[in-house]
Amino acid sequence: MAAAILVAAAGLLALLFAAQFAAASFGYGFSPLLVVREAVGGDVIVWSLVALLALLVLCLWLVLPHREARLWLPLEGGGVAIPAALFEGFVERALTAHPEVLRVRVQLTVRGERLCGAATVHLRPLADVERLSRELEAEAAAAVCSVVGVSPERFGVRARVVSVRQLKRYLP
Protein backbone atom coordinates (compact mmCIF):
# COMPACT_ATOMS: atom_id res chain seq x y z
CA MET A 1 0.00 0.00 0.00
CA ALA A 2 2.81 2.39 0.90
CA ALA A 3 4.55 1.69 -2.40
CA ALA A 4 1.36 2.46 -4.32
CA ILE A 5 0.97 5.78 -2.50
CA LEU A 6 4.59 6.67 -3.22
CA VAL A 7 4.23 5.75 -6.89
CA ALA A 8 1.07 7.86 -7.16
CA ALA A 9 2.80 10.81 -5.45
CA ALA A 10 5.79 10.48 -7.79
CA GLY A 11 3.43 10.40 -10.80
CA LEU A 12 1.66 13.55 -9.61
CA LEU A 13 4.99 15.24 -9.07
CA ALA A 14 6.13 14.22 -12.55
CA LEU A 15 2.95 15.77 -14.01
CA LEU A 16 3.67 19.00 -12.13
CA PHE A 17 7.22 19.01 -13.51
CA ALA A 18 5.98 18.37 -17.03
CA ALA A 19 3.39 21.16 -16.88
CA GLN A 20 5.88 23.63 -15.38
CA PHE A 21 8.65 22.85 -17.86
CA ALA A 22 6.32 22.76 -20.87
CA ALA A 23 4.96 26.19 -19.95
CA ALA A 24 8.48 27.56 -19.41
CA SER A 25 9.77 26.15 -22.71
CA PHE A 26 6.96 27.79 -24.70
CA GLY A 27 7.30 31.09 -22.83
CA TYR A 28 3.91 30.96 -21.13
CA GLY A 29 3.35 32.21 -17.63
CA PHE A 30 1.14 29.23 -16.79
CA SER A 31 2.05 27.21 -13.75
CA PRO A 32 0.08 24.59 -11.84
CA LEU A 33 1.58 26.17 -8.74
CA LEU A 34 0.73 29.75 -9.73
CA VAL A 35 -0.27 30.86 -6.25
CA VAL A 36 2.92 29.54 -4.71
CA ARG A 37 5.10 30.91 -7.55
CA GLU A 38 3.84 34.46 -7.03
CA ALA A 39 4.46 34.25 -3.29
CA VAL A 40 7.94 32.69 -3.33
CA GLY A 41 9.51 32.81 -6.78
CA GLY A 42 10.08 30.39 -9.65
CA ASP A 43 13.56 29.15 -8.69
CA VAL A 44 12.48 28.16 -5.21
CA ILE A 45 9.61 26.10 -6.63
CA VAL A 46 11.85 24.24 -9.07
CA TRP A 47 14.46 23.39 -6.43
CA SER A 48 11.81 22.37 -3.90
CA LEU A 49 10.21 20.09 -6.53
CA VAL A 50 13.61 18.53 -7.29
CA ALA A 51 14.21 17.94 -3.58
CA LEU A 52 10.72 16.46 -3.20
CA LEU A 53 11.31 14.15 -6.16
CA ALA A 54 14.62 12.98 -4.65
CA LEU A 55 12.87 12.35 -1.34
CA LEU A 56 10.13 10.33 -3.06
CA VAL A 57 12.70 8.23 -4.92
CA LEU A 58 14.54 7.54 -1.67
CA CYS A 59 11.31 6.54 0.09
CA LEU A 60 10.33 4.29 -2.81
CA TRP A 61 13.75 2.60 -2.72
CA LEU A 62 13.35 1.99 1.02
CA VAL A 63 9.83 0.57 0.66
CA LEU A 64 10.36 -1.80 -2.27
CA PRO A 65 11.97 -5.15 -1.44
CA HIS A 66 15.49 -5.49 -2.74
CA ARG A 67 16.57 -8.48 -0.75
CA GLU A 68 17.50 -11.91 -1.96
CA ALA A 69 15.21 -14.85 -1.31
CA ARG A 70 15.74 -16.43 2.08
CA LEU A 71 14.64 -19.79 3.37
CA TRP A 72 13.54 -20.10 6.99
CA LEU A 73 14.90 -23.23 8.65
CA PRO A 74 13.11 -23.96 11.92
CA LEU A 75 15.36 -25.08 14.76
CA GLU A 76 14.78 -25.84 18.42
CA GLY A 77 14.03 -22.57 20.17
CA GLY A 78 13.75 -20.53 16.98
CA GLY A 79 15.20 -20.77 13.53
CA VAL A 80 17.52 -19.20 11.03
CA ALA A 81 16.97 -17.48 7.69
CA ILE A 82 19.50 -18.62 5.08
CA PRO A 83 19.85 -17.16 1.55
CA ALA A 84 18.59 -19.63 -1.04
CA ALA A 85 21.64 -18.88 -3.19
CA LEU A 86 23.82 -20.79 -0.71
CA PHE A 87 22.04 -24.00 -1.61
CA GLU A 88 22.45 -23.47 -5.36
CA GLY A 89 26.16 -24.28 -5.32
CA PHE A 90 25.54 -27.40 -3.28
CA VAL A 91 22.92 -28.66 -5.73
CA GLU A 92 25.14 -27.78 -8.70
CA ARG A 93 28.00 -29.84 -7.27
CA ALA A 94 25.66 -32.76 -6.62
CA LEU A 95 24.35 -32.71 -10.20
CA THR A 96 27.74 -32.15 -11.80
CA ALA A 97 29.01 -35.34 -10.16
CA HIS A 98 26.95 -37.36 -12.65
CA PRO A 99 29.21 -38.63 -15.48
CA GLU A 100 26.84 -37.53 -18.28
CA VAL A 101 26.56 -33.92 -17.08
CA LEU A 102 28.78 -31.23 -18.56
CA ARG A 103 27.42 -28.04 -17.01
CA VAL A 104 24.64 -27.16 -14.58
CA ARG A 105 22.93 -23.89 -13.68
CA VAL A 106 20.57 -24.02 -10.68
CA GLN A 107 18.14 -21.39 -9.50
CA LEU A 108 16.34 -21.84 -6.20
CA THR A 109 13.43 -19.62 -5.20
CA VAL A 110 11.44 -19.29 -2.03
CA ARG A 111 7.67 -18.85 -2.19
CA GLY A 112 6.40 -18.19 1.27
CA GLU A 113 8.11 -20.90 3.27
CA ARG A 114 8.31 -23.36 0.37
CA LEU A 115 11.43 -24.00 -1.61
CA CYS A 116 11.19 -24.43 -5.39
CA GLY A 117 13.90 -24.77 -7.94
CA ALA A 118 14.89 -25.26 -11.52
CA ALA A 119 18.06 -26.52 -13.13
CA THR A 120 19.35 -26.23 -16.66
CA VAL A 121 21.60 -29.20 -17.37
CA HIS A 122 23.83 -29.61 -20.42
CA LEU A 123 24.45 -33.28 -21.21
CA ARG A 124 27.03 -35.12 -23.27
CA PRO A 125 26.15 -36.02 -26.87
CA LEU A 126 23.88 -39.05 -27.36
CA ALA A 127 22.60 -38.94 -23.77
CA ASP A 128 19.11 -40.21 -22.91
CA VAL A 129 17.33 -36.96 -21.99
CA GLU A 130 14.15 -38.37 -20.41
CA ARG A 131 15.91 -40.89 -18.19
CA LEU A 132 18.60 -38.45 -17.10
CA SER A 133 16.05 -35.71 -16.41
CA ARG A 134 14.20 -37.99 -14.00
CA GLU A 135 17.43 -39.14 -12.35
CA LEU A 136 18.81 -35.63 -11.97
CA GLU A 137 15.52 -34.31 -10.64
CA ALA A 138 15.58 -37.00 -7.94
CA GLU A 139 19.26 -36.28 -7.18
CA ALA A 140 18.61 -32.55 -6.87
CA ALA A 141 15.64 -33.08 -4.57
CA ALA A 142 17.72 -35.46 -2.44
CA ALA A 143 20.59 -32.96 -2.30
CA VAL A 144 18.30 -30.16 -1.15
CA CYS A 145 16.57 -32.47 1.32
CA SER A 146 19.87 -33.57 2.85
CA VAL A 147 20.83 -29.96 3.60
CA VAL A 148 17.49 -28.34 4.39
CA GLY A 149 15.69 -31.34 5.82
CA VAL A 150 12.66 -30.80 3.60
CA SER A 151 12.36 -31.79 -0.03
CA PRO A 152 11.55 -28.94 -2.40
CA GLU A 153 7.92 -28.54 -3.37
CA ARG A 154 8.81 -28.42 -7.03
CA PHE A 155 12.13 -28.91 -8.76
CA GLY A 156 12.30 -28.94 -12.54
CA VAL A 157 15.23 -30.11 -14.60
CA ARG A 158 15.57 -28.88 -18.16
CA ALA A 159 18.08 -31.10 -19.90
CA ARG A 160 19.78 -30.20 -23.15
CA VAL A 161 22.01 -32.49 -25.16
CA VAL A 162 25.09 -30.76 -26.47
CA SER A 163 26.10 -31.51 -30.04
CA VAL A 164 29.63 -32.61 -30.85
CA ARG A 165 30.37 -29.22 -32.43
CA GLN A 166 29.37 -27.42 -29.23
CA LEU A 167 31.20 -29.81 -26.96
CA LYS A 168 34.39 -27.77 -26.68
CA ARG A 169 32.45 -24.84 -25.21
CA TYR A 170 30.96 -26.94 -22.43
CA LEU A 171 33.96 -28.99 -21.36
CA PRO A 172 35.79 -27.75 -18.26
Explain what you see:
The chain has 172 residues and is of the alpha+beta class. 52% of the residues lie in helices and 24% in strands. The protein is built from 6 helices and 5 strands, in the order αααββαββαβα. It has helices spanning 2-25, 34-40, 42-63, 85-96, 129-148, 167-170, and strands at 70-75, 78-83, 101-111, 114-123, 154-161. It has a 3-stranded mixed β-sheet, covered by helices on one side. A two-stranded antiparallel sheet has the order 1-2. It is elongated and about 75 Å long. 16% of the residues are buried. The mean pLDDT is 78.
Brief rundown of the structure:
The chain has helices at residues 2-25, 34-40, 42-63, 85-96, 129-148, 167-170, and strands spanning 70-75, 78-83, 101-111, 114-123, 154-161. It has 172 residues and is an alpha+beta fold.
